[in-house]
Amino acid sequence: QVQLVESGGGLVQAGGSLRLSCAASGRTFSSYFMGWFRQPPGKEREFVAAISRSVSNTYYTDSVKGRFTISRDNAKNTVYLQMNSLKPEDTAVYYCAAGASLAPGSLRYAEEYDYWGQGTQVTVSS
Question: Which of 96, 52, 104 is nearest to 74 (CA)?
Fold first, then answer.
C-alpha cells in the first residue's frame, strides 16, 4: 500500500509563491501517475494537475495554467506542485493522489485514483 504525505502549505499573500511536496512510501513510486486536487472551504474537491510516468506529460485545469507546474523526482519518491502568482481563490486544502492505470481522459476524476494523502492547507490573503 502506498502512503502519501503532503507538505509545504501555509499562508502567503496574493502574487506570492509556494512549493508543495508529496512524499510517497511503501511501493515503487515510478509506476504511478500522480495528481493534485484541492478542496476550497465549503466546496467540493476539484482537479488541479497531474503527471504521467514520463515527466514530459503534464496536465492542468484551466484556472492554473501558466501559474502552476507539476513535476516528479522518482529517485526521491516525491511529486511537487510549484504555485506562482497565487490568488485568493487558490485557497484550499491541497491533496496528493496516486493512480496505477490512469489515462488522459480520466485523470481529472478523483474516483480514478487509488491512494490519497492527508492534505495540506494553502491560504492566500488579499
Answer: 52
Q: Over 70: is that where the pLDDT of 27 sits?
A: no
C-alpha cell of residue 86 = 497565487
Q: How distant, in Å, are the alpha carbons of 30, 84, 86 from that of 12? A: 31, 11, 8
Listing DSSP states for 63-119 in one string gives GGTTTEEEEEEGGGTEEEEEE-S--GGG-EEEEEEEESS--TTTTT-GGG-SEE---
Q: Virtual CA dihedral for 99, 81, 105, 66, nearest 10 degrees? A: -170
Per the DSSP assignment, residues forming a β-bridge with 10 are 122
Q: What's the Rg (C-alpha) of the chain? A: 13
Distance of CA 66 to the CA centre of its chain: 15
d(CA 5, CA 116): 9
Answer yes or no: is pLDDT of 30 > 80.
Answer: no
